[in-house]
Amino acid sequence: MSEDSAAAEVARMLAAADSAAALTGAGVSTASGIPDFRSEGGIWDEFDPSEFRYARFRSDPDGFWERRVEMHAAVYGGDIEPNAAHEALGTLEQAGVLDTVVTQNIDGLHQAAGSETVVELHGNADRVICDGCGQQQRAAPVHERVVDGDVPPRCSDCEGLLKPDVVLFGESLPQTALQRARESAREADIFLAAGSSLSVQPASSLPRTAVRTGATLVVVNLEETPVSDITEYELLADVTEMLPAIADRV
Ligand SMILES: [Zn+2]
């Protein structure tokens, strides 16, 4: 099937479906200049992952936060904007054909592109959360405090340690997000996985859950994935081209 007719076919199915969910991974944000953390030349070549473990956050919050702010600046310091893939998913939701975006990304670019129902499996780097009372706030002012030497930053209400609102190594995924993600996979007639290698839990199991409960699985990714065997439409393509091609045809 040519890419054009595949896009048209997926668009037709989306328009006809009662419920559709998307799952996105690092590949959706690389065109926005955010490196895939795991890839060669990625962030973990420059920073040591062990510095960002939850245990380190607890035992040495000063050191953790100083490195965290440096890493945040290295990843998000540039002019980060949503790309055509984010825009296409935002358009599909606005058009009423996509119900939920479940994302492994922590960059907030889906919301910036107009997606409103976004399930963040790994949190959001633009927020911090109090490890004591759970209160959330914007990250930028907290990062400024760290740069000004106010380490570790503490909650103004309970004096608890502030933590980036992302899933650190050694931390479990947020249960509410995980439940919502599974629910959207079970409810979906069409499950569209985009820019994810689908190799890390729970991204690796959500497509299988969706298919088991009756969904048609569409995968848009540069490479084959471990769920190729159950993928009805495997579109080995650039997400910034294929997702707009689909959205344009809905
Ligand atoms: Zn607090």
TrEMBL record:
Enzyme Commission number(s): 2.3.1.286
Binding site for Zn(2+): 130, 133, 155, 158
UniProt protein name: NAD-dependent protein deacylase
Gene Ontology molecular function, alphabetical: metal ion binding; NAD-dependent protein lysine deacetylase activity
UniProt-listed CDD domains: SIR2-fam (cd01407)
InterPro entries named in the record: DHS-like_NAD/FAD-binding_dom, NAD-dep_sirtuin_deacylases, Sirtuin, Sirtuin_cat_small_dom_sf, Ssirtuin_cat_dom
Entry annotated with the keyword Zinc: yes
